[in-house]
Each structure stands twice: as C-alpha cells, then as structure tokens.
C-alpha cells in the first residue's frame, strides 16, 4: 500500500547549467542518479562508498564526485549499479527516518519548503510502514510536521 503514497520526487543538483546528479530518499535510503557520458565502457566507471564520503569517476581520470556525505551511511548495505545510461548509488541511512536536505555536504541543499515537504512525505511513509492496513495516500499535515525519526518514541526496529 505504500505505493499509494506520493512518489519520491527526484531533486536535481546543477553546477552552472550542467546537471551533476539527481537524488531522492525513502525512510531507509538515499538514491543518487548520475547520467553517464556516452561511449565510455561501463567497466571503467567506479564508485567508492565510505561512511561519510563518496567518490565516483572513470578510472584513469580525476573523480567526477569526491565529496563528504551530508549524513553517515551503512557501508555494508550501500551499493551502486549501472542501469542503462545511469549510475545509481543506493546509500543506506545510518539513522532511519532522518530527512536529508542533500546527499552531499554543501551541494544542492533543498530550500526549507522542499525539506519540509520531504519530511512530511517521510512521516507518511513511516505511518504506512507501521500501519500497513491503513491507506495514507490522501493524508496531509497542517502546520509543522514532526520529525519521522523521533516522533512518538522514534521508529520501531522490529
């Protein structure tokens, strides 16, 4: 039933007029999508994921991304894949339910309004996860939304 909730909106980070990456998040993970350059063999791409750092590039060249992450991740359950013309990085949040305003420190931060919308969406996702028999697809928050990570004693870890 969680598919009835509003889908994650991909946020885009641009440097000048060039899109660097897109990203979205769920309660448990942050997904980063990087469009790959054409005519480069896929075996040349690499991605190193550390607890607080990510590096992406083409072997033999300076890294395309070499930045600290906004929040720590679980490296043992974070991974990357190549999907058609996209490098997809799945970062497992160390703190489930924490709302990220950007995957990268100081780059492409969401404005306060967009961060609030993300927090509301994650809160609904938490409600849906904890109450699978209910439909929260039309639910809305009026006013400030509580933090999905800490609301009513925090997220259960069953």
UniProtKB/TrEMBL annotation:
Residues 16-104 form the CS domain. One of its GO terms (molecular function) is unfolded protein binding. One of its GO terms (cellular component) is cytoplasm. Gene3D superfamilies: 2.60.40.790, Single helix bin (1.20.5.740). It comes from the Eukaryota. CDD domains: p23_NUDC_like. Pfam families: CS (PF04969). One of its GO terms (biological process) is protein folding. This is CS domain-containing protein.
């Amino acid at each position: 039933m969680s598919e009835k909730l509003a889908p994650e909106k991909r946020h885009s980070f641009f440097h000048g007029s060039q899109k660097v990456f897109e990203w979205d998040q769920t309660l448990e993970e942050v997904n980063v999508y990087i469009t790959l350059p054409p005519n480069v063999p896929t075996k040349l791409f690499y991605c190193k994921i550390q607890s607080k750092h990510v590096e992406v590039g083409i072997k033999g060249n300076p890294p395309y991304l070499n930045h600290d992450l906004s929040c720590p991740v679980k490296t043992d359950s974070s991974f990357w894949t190549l999907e058609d013309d996209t490098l997809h990085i799945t970062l497992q949040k160390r703190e489930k339910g924490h709302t990220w305003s950007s995957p990268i420190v100081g780059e492409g931060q969401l404005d306060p309004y967009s961060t609030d919308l993300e927090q509301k969406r994650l809160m609904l996702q938490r409600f849906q996860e904890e109450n699978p028999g209910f439909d929260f697809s039309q639910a809305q928050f009026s006013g400030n939304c509580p933090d999905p990570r800490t609301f009513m004693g925090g997220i259960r870890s069953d």
